[in-house]
TrEMBL record:
Listed transmembrane segments: none
Keywords: Nucleotidyltransferase, RNA-directed DNA polymerase, Transferase
Pfam families cross-referenced by the UniProt entry: zf-RVT (PF13966)
Protein name: RNA-directed DNA polymerase (Reverse transcriptase)-related family protein
Molecular function GO terms recorded: RNA-directed DNA polymerase activity
C-alpha cells in the first residue's frame, strides 16, 4: 500500500488506490500535509496542481483563499491554468465580480504570473524532510505524528447522541458546506441574498445560526427552558468544544437542524413557526432519540 501511496504522491492523485483499502481514506487525510512538505520545480506543469501544491508561489489555495473560493476546477494543473489565464471566465465563476478581495487577489496573482514560464522538461519533486530530497515512509510518518489531523475536532460531532441525519448536518455546517445563499452565489447562482428568518441581512452560516435575531430568540427560549448557562449568542465553536457538556452540545445540534428546517420551510413552503414552537420540536426530538438514562 505504501508503494501505491508514493506513486500517487508523484502523480498528485489517489485515484489509482483501490476503493476497498483503508489507504484511500488515510491518503485523503495526510494529503494536505504531504503538499506542505513537497516542493516542486515545474517543467511542463502537467504533473503539478496549480492551487494545491507549492510550485514557487506557495500554496495558492491558502495565500489566495478568496480567489480560490471562486475557482471552477480546484484540481487544475499548472499547465492548464497558465494556458487559460487570459480566459478567466473558464477558470472562475461569474460571481467573482461581487467580491472585491477576490478581484484584488486576482490582479496581484496575474502580475506575479507575468514573469513565469514553463518548459518541455517534466516537473521535478523534492521532499523537504530529507537531506537528499527523496520521499521516505519514516519522514512522512513523523510528519503525520507532528501535526494533528486537519479535521480532528470534527470527530467530536460523531460522538453526539443524536440522529444520524443531524450528525451529518452538523458536520456539513461546521465546514460551511450548507447551501446558504452566500455559498450558492459563490457557485454561480444568480439570486438575491437575504435572510428569510427575520431581518434583511445577507444569509451566511454565521448570520443564520448565530447572529439572526430569530435564532437568538430561539436559543434564549431554549436556555430559559433548559436552565442552560450558555451565553447567547452561542459561540460558533460550541459543537466541537469538548469542555462544554455533551448534552448541551447535543441539544444545540438539534436546534441548528431545526433552525435550518424552519429556514427551508419559509422559503419553499411559506410556513412560519414561532421560536417557542422550535423549542418544542427540540424537546420532542431530544426525548425521542436520547436514551432515557441520559435524561436523568
Amino acid at each position: 500500500m505504501w508503494t501505491k501511496l508514493v506513486a500517487s504522491t508523484q502523480l498528485n492523485s489517489y485515484s489509482q488506490i483501490p476503493e476497498f483499502t483503508p489507504l484511500k481514506l488515510s491518503f485523503r487525510e495526510i494529503l494536505p500535509l504531504v503538499n506542505v512538505a513537497l516542493i516542486i520545480h515545474p517543467g511542463n506543469g502537467l504533473s503539478t496542481r496549480f492551487w494545491q501544491q507549492n510550485w514557487g508561489l506557495g500554496i495558492l489555495r491558502h495565500s489566495n483563499s478568496d480567489l480560490y473560493s471562486f475557482a471552477i476546477d480546484i484540481n487544475i494543473t499548472l499547465a492548464q491554468a497558465l494556458r487559460d489565464w487570459n480566459r478567466q471566465e473558464v477558470l472562475f465563476n461569474q460571481a467573482i465580480s461581487t467580491s472585491g478581495s477576490a478581484l484584488q487577489q486576482l490582479d496581484n496573482l496575474s502580475q506575479e504570473l507575468l514573469s513565469f514560464s514553463l518548459n518541455e522538461n517534466p516537473d521535478r519533486f523534492f521532499w523537504k524532510l530529507t537531506t537528499n530530497g527523496d520521499f521516505t515512509v519514516k519522514s512522512c510518518y513523523n510528519l503525520q505524528k507532528a501535526y494533528p489531523r486537519p479535521d480532528s475536532e470534527l470527530y467530536n460531532l460523531w460522538k453526539l447522541h443524536v440522529a444520524p441525519r443531524i450528525k451529518l448536518f452538523t458536520w456539513r455546517l461546521q465546514q460551511n458546506k450548507l447551501a446558504t445563499y452566500d455559498n450558492l452565489i459563490k457557485r454561480g447562482w444568480q439570486l438575491p441574498n437575504k435572510c428569510y428568518l427575520r431581518d434583511a441581512s445577507e444569509e451566511t452560516k454565521s448570520h443564520i445560526f448565530f447572529n439572526c435575531p430569530f435564532a437568538r430568540d430561539v436559543f434564549t427560549k431554549w436556555a430559559l427552558k433548559m436552565r442552560s448557562p450558555i451565553q447567547i449568542p452561542v459561540p460558533e465553536s460550541i459543537l466541537i468544544n469538548p469542555s462544554i457538556n455533551r448534552a448541551v452540545r447535543e441539544q444545540v445540534a438539534i436546534l441548528f437542524f431545526i433552525l435550518w428546517k424552519e429556514r427551508c420551510n419559509r422559503i419553499f413552503r411559506e410556513v412560519k413557526l414561532r421560536p417557542e414552537d422550535l423549542v418544542t420540536q427540540l424537546l420532542h426530538e431530544w426525548k425521542r432519540k436520547i436514551p432515557s438514562k441520559l435524561l436523568r
